[in-house]
């Protein structure tokens, strides 16, 4: 309305009328004793424009890698910088007009990582059944978020390795994310009907020579939830028995991007690339990089 505010941005008024000016001393959101009688000086600390500096340690490495030349010095970092990117990482950038960019984890997005993506967290316990010898191979698991509509679409995927007899009933956690545009229209009627054909498929392969062994399929029950957690136990039967049902589950057309000794699973629309299952001695998104696994002696 064009009128000048009577409140100074560095003044804080308690409920009992006492006014503090926190440019003369650190008391607002200092995490210590309450300065106001009812402790309102410690409320809504993530919304204020000013935070007192926090003392941290940094390293001055002018002559890296000479360790003798490294010395410690104290510097200050503003709380505002820490929280500006929410769940992301604040990085200064000369390319950005704002002078910084926010590096977001996979399940957050936005210029300040302020939005959450619809996602499913899976927790798998792997267990062996029956009698097995010590030569049981290392297995590779591919976890797919699948949508079966007019065509089979892979929305997201993760993978992990399982080495029997190394761990006792290991637990593996994966995060499967939906496309960002679906996170924006989460509660529309069209979106809820779209999610009804979603499922999670787990494919197990031998890792030395990539051969398919088993498949697990789990339907997703609560499509309206923006974040879900699914916990399952995966039982592995005799390794000599292989599952041929992968012929109908996976599009077996050859991929020009995967190496010849890898296994093509499908196309990930989240990463915009083919999904290649690499043997144990190959790494990379296309399985072209030679890798020598570490073995204990």
Question: What is the structure about, briefly put?
Answer:
The chain has 297 residues and is mainly beta. It has helices at residues 79-84, 180-184, 189-195, 246-249, and strands at residues 11-13, 19-21, 54-60, 71-77, 89-92, 100-103, 108-109, 115-116, 119-128, 139-148, 152-162, 171-177, 198-206, 211-219, 227-236, 263-268, 273-277, 282-283, 289-290. The radius of gyration is 27 Å and the shape is elongated.
Characterization of the model:
The chain has 297 residues and is mainly beta. The protein has two domains: 1-52, Low-density Lipoprotein Receptor; 117-290, Sandwich (Immunoglobulin-like). It is 7% helix and 38% strand. It contains four helices and 19 strands. The protein has helices at residues 79-84, 180-184, 189-195, 246-249; strands at residues 11-13, 19-21, 54-60, 71-77, 89-92, 100-103, 108-109, 115-116, 119-128, 139-148, 152-162, 171-177, 198-206, 211-219, 227-236, 263-268, 273-277, 282-283, 289-290. The strands form eight sheets. A four-stranded antiparallel beta sheet has the order 11-10-13-14, with no helix packed on it. Strands 12-9-15 form a three-stranded mixed beta sheet, with no helix packed on it. The chain has a two-stranded antiparallel ribbon with strand order 1-2. A hairpin with a 5-residue loop joins strand 18 (282-283) and strand 19. Mean pLDDT is 76; it is low at 50-59, 66-71 and 242-252.
What key phrases describe this protein's structure?
single chain; 297 residues; mainly beta; Low-density Lipoprotein Receptor; Immunoglobulin-like; 2 domains; 4-stranded antiparallel sheet; 3-stranded mixed sheet; 19 strands; 7% helix; elongated; EGF
